[in-house]
Design a protein that fits this description.
The structure holds 2 protein chains of 2 kinds. In chain A, about 40% of the residues lie in helices and about 20% in strands. In chain A, α7 links the parallel β5 (about 145-150) and β6. In chain A, the strands form 2 sheets. Chain A has a 9-stranded mixed β-sheet. Chain A has a 6-stranded parallel β-sheet with strand order 3-2-1-4-5-6, with helices on both faces. Chain A is globular, with a radius of gyration of 22 Å. Chain A is an alpha/beta fold. Chain A is built from 15 helices and 15 strands. By secondary structure, chain B is α/β, with parallel strands linked by helices. Helices cover about 35% and strands about 20% of the residues of chain B. Chain B is built from 15 helices and 15 strands. Chain B has a 9-stranded mixed β-sheet. In chain B, strands 3-2-1-4-5-6 form a 6-stranded parallel β-sheet, with helices on both faces. Chain B is globular and about 60 Å long. The two termini of chain B are about 45 Å apart. The chains are: A alpha/beta, B alpha/beta. The interface of A and B includes residues 291 and 425 of A.
Chain lengths: ~425, ~425
């Protein structure tokens, strides 16, 4: 860390003087102690820290900085220096006037998140691989920071329980947690769901949701192993393709659609039966397709389907079927009370940040922790059912499952590649 | 063959045989053939094509279903299968089995010989890949048919079944399919209520055939077997023979959904793969499928089928309406909702009843023709398989009218036959 410091300073964008830095930090320390109240006037500067400087982290922090006036990025943390540097370069061109990061506030390593949290910030953006979210959220909330956290919230039931516990702590402390579910902050979803809750489609009796798309290799780079990139560091660089890091694509991606089903129905499922496999993919240990049936209270069954295979039929959508009509997530209702959303839909990435910051400044904290934990659990259950071939009950997964995908220790070096699941053989834990 | 005949306890004399044959030749000349059974007293002579476990079982069901039914001819590709079947049938029904050496046929053209023999009804129970050709030959020859599901393994085959069914209609011949559930009382009662509007408008549904049985009718390849012999003896594991398990097995459940909705689907989107049965000994079929079928009016039904040991089993159908939902299995059936209902009458095996209905229809001169509906249920399953294999969404009209998929091997002979590759979604071509 110390050795790495010097060259990094030169890359650290517009620099604030040490004295300014200390002054602002002091102000923010006060703010942190008063749990968001300092922002009531809407005029104070909000100082944010970024944990996880990959593509999504960089995009999220740009959205955050652009979403509201008076927001500055003051600290960054990542596991890899090159990722942090690359992120900084982009931020310098996109948001130069809001970039207040110094060499002293750029942190690299497994404990970088702790340093960001302790780095004089009011709010942190948690955009590390999903595996780390529970630990990072807990540290942030314990330290009294507001949080933007990317979905999914966790990769296993142990992580989900941790997220829920941290959310409850955030509630007690009056802290905000907004999750990057996007759709919850999009006007056309909000309008359609409002109508569903008003009974416009009658009683919900069926539904489907899909995230069928390509293999994502154009979106995330795959790194081959070599003499320096192996084990832990290799898996971390390739996090989307390892279940312990991403949760598999049903959790990492399809959670968006499953979140809409929970929202529309107003409940989480009671049980699940899923299947899936690897028909094409040979990277990491995740599957490339899942199809899961979720049963909600009162016998309501919905289907979740997701696939990451090139050259197949793509469909990303949610469909909620009621006794009087059918609602489509994209902003349309057909049936007895037809409706079509025709207004504008602001950029969801920006809107969720704007809502979060407004909540903090108005001292009306938004806490989406439990909701995103539950949607994440829906996806995790689906994955566990597909991996094991077993039907599962929510109560068991939530309360009794011991599944914890954490590695024995967090350090670079050897780490066996976990096996691909085999339905009927992979144990339910 | 000799050994087999010697085992037989109820060989008819050659003279008796000729006499009976003559009567039936006349019958065959008269059109419709069924008229001579009007009195319900004449013997019905049945030939079995495909003497495996299901074929032998179907022959037993046929005998049990009605009086005056005799099994008089057997056909199979393999002598050992035919012998075993004959031994089983003779042991169980000494006086109802009258198969001679002359009416035992082996080889790829055995079905032709059996159809040309003095039979009134043929049971088609070979691997499904052969069904369209066998049905066509039987109907053209003026025979009534009981055929096992599924009706075909590809769209070309399904079209052939439909054409043959139309011919059967013209000729007044019966075709009954081994869909089983169509004849079980709980299904009949529940479907009647669905059609009467007891669950309101149908808006969704699910059907499942998830069970273990990963090694269902698996045959270990023997060194002396050619490629063709191995594939046929281990037929469930080769798509060209079985259609894959979504077609071979899950067709039962899809048939119920088509029945409930009163239509075939208009499009589908499926996925699947081979996660456990990965070795070459398991041929080229998948071990799991999930398919979404869309029916007219935007009704989407999810279908799931898997054959993986150690996984949760669920076999049944659920139909969801605006006023309630149904749940049916081979063991029970009920309706939940505004018009709740539970079937609590007797349970029968659909496997015997379907033969009873068929034979009665022949004797009453009121032919039953299930050819089209079993072809449609079969094509429903086939389109789900094609969608899962290719990763593409498909429309019914395209599959029914435009798909050129024909899985028939280049020639039928015991010899080399490379195994077609396992499908790769996104790469396997839509044909």
């Amino acid at each position: 860390m110390k050795q790495a410091k010097k060259p990094r300073i030169s890359r650290c964008g517009p620099q604030i003087s040490r004295r300014d830095f200390i002054k602002s930090s002091a102000a923010v320390s006060l703010a942190a102690m008063t749990s968001g109240r300092a922002f009531a006037a809407g005029s104070d500067t909000m100082r944010v820290g970024l944990i996880g400087c990959g593509g999504q982290g960089t995009r999220d922090v740009i959205s955050c900085l652009k979403s509201s006036p008076g927001v500055e990025l003051v600290a960054m943390g990542d596991l890899f220096k090159d990722r942090l540097d690359k992120s900084l370069e982009k931020l310098k061109t996109k948001v130069p006037d809001k970039l207040k990061v110094t060499g002293d506030t750029c942190f690299v390593g497994f404990d970088a998140y702790k340093k960001v949290i302790a780095g004089g910030v009011d709010m942190v953006l948690i955009v590390s691989p999903p595996h780390f979210h529970p630990e990072h959220l807990r540290a942030a909330i314990e330290a009294g920071k507001h949080v933007f956290m990317e979905k999914p919230a966790a990769v296993d039931p142990a992580g989900v329980r941790s997220i829920i516990a941290s959310s409850e702590l955030a509630e007690q402390k009056g802290l905000s947690i907004v999750a990057g579910t996007q759709r919850r902050h999009q006007a056309h979803y909000i309008e359609v769901i409002k109508r569903i809750h008003n009974g416009d489609i009658g009683e919900i009796v069926a539904g489907q949701c899909y995230w069928n798309g390509g293999d994502m290799l154009g979106y995330w780079k795959w790194y081959e192993q070599d003499s320096s990139l192996y084990g832990m560091q290799w898996q971390l660089r390739n996090w989307p393709w390892f279940t312990w890091l991403s949760g598999d694509h049903i959790v990492e991606q399809h959670v968006h659609n499953l979140d809409i089903m929970n929202w529309a129905i107003g409940a989480h499922p009671v049980q699940v039966m899923g299947m899936g496999g690897r028909a094409v993919r040979d990277l990491g240990n995740i599957f490339d397709h899942f199809a899961v049936e979720y049963e909600y209270p009162n016998g309501l069954r919905i289907m979740g389907m997701c696939r990451q295979i090139n050259g197949c039929h793509n469909r990303v959508a949610e469909r909620i079927v009621g006794t009087r009509g059918i609602a489509h997530g994209k902003g349309r209702i057909e049936g007895q009370n037809p409706y079509k959303y025709e207004g504008k839909s602001p950029n969801a990435y920006v809107q969720e940040q704007a809502d979060l910051i407004a909540g903090i400044r108005e001292a009306k904290p938004i806490n989406e922790g439990r909701q995103v934990a539950e949607s994440t659990m829906v996806a995790i259950m689906g994955r566990m059912s597909a991996y094991t071939g077993r039907a599962l009950k929510w109560d068991w997964a939530m309360n009794a499952s011991q599944l914890d995908l954490s590695p024995p220790k967090y350090e670079f070096g050897d780490l066996p590649t976990p096996p691909v699941a085999t339905p009927g053989k992979t144990q339910l834990i | 063959m000799k050994k087999k005949v010697s085992k037989k306890t109820n060989v008819v004399s050659r003279r008796d045989f000729i006499k009976t044959s003559a009567a039936f030749s006349l019958a065959a000349l008269a059109s419709p053939t069924s008229r001579i059974f009007a009195a319900g007293s004449d013997k019905l002579r049945v030939g079995l094509v495909g003497c495996g476990a299901r074929g032998s079982g179907a022959a037993v069901d046929c005998i049990r279903s009605s009086d005056g039914v005799e099994i008089v001819a057997l056909a199979d590709l393999f002598g050992d299968r035919l012998d075993k079947s004959l031994a089983r049938l003779s042991r169980k029904f000494d006086d109802r089995v009258n198969v001679t050496e002359d009416t035992s046929f082996l080889g790829f053209d055995a079905f032709k010989k059996l159809i040309a023999s003095e039979v009134d009804l043929v049971i088609l129970a070979t691997p499904p890949g052969f069904r369209p050709e066998h049905l066509k030959a039987a109907i053209e020859a003026g025979k009534h048919v009981f055929m096992e599901k599924p009706a075909a393994v590809d769209p070309v085959g399904a079209r052939s079944i439909i054409a043959t069914s139309e011919l059967a209609k013209e000729k007044g011949l019966s075709i009954v399919a081994g869909t089983q559930q169509r004849r079980q009382y709980q299904y009949i009662e529940i479907m009647k209520r669905v059609h009467n509007g007891q669950i309101g408008e149908v808006v969704g549904g699910q059907c499942y055939w998830n069970w273990g049985s990963q090694d269902w009718h698996f045959e270990q390849r023997q060194p002396e077997w050619s490629d063709m012999e191995w594939q046929i003896r281990c037929w469930p594991y080769f798509t060209w023979l079985s259609g894959d398990h979504i077609v071979e097995q899950h067709v039962h459940n899809l048939d119920i959904i088509n029945w409930a909705i009163g239509s075939h689907p208009v499009q589908c989107l499926g996925m699947g793969g081979r996660q456990v049965r990965t070795g070459p000994e398991y041929g080229n079929i998948f071990d799991h499928f999930t398919v979404e079928y869309e029916y007219p009016g935007g009704v989407r039904v999810m279908s799931m089928a898997s054959q993986i040991n150690g996984t949760t089993e669920r076999v049944g159908e659920r139909v969801v309406g605006t006023k309630g939902s149904t749940y049916t299995t081979r063991a029970y059936g009920y309706i939940e909702g505004q018009n709740a209902y539970k079937y609590d009458g007797p349970h029968i095996s659909g496997m015997v009843k379907e033969h009873a209905d068929l034979i009665k229809s022949i004797r009453d001169g009121r032919p039953i023709n299930e050819g089209r509906h079993v072809a449609e249920s079969t094509l429903t399953a086939i389109m789900g398989r094609i969608s899962a294999y290719t990763g593409r969404a498909l429309k019914w009209d395209w599959v029914m009218n435009a798909s050129k998929l024909d899985l028939t091997p280049p020639r039928y002979e015991m010899g080399d036959l490379p195994v077609r590759p396992v499908a790769v979604p996104g790469k396997t071509q839509l044909i």
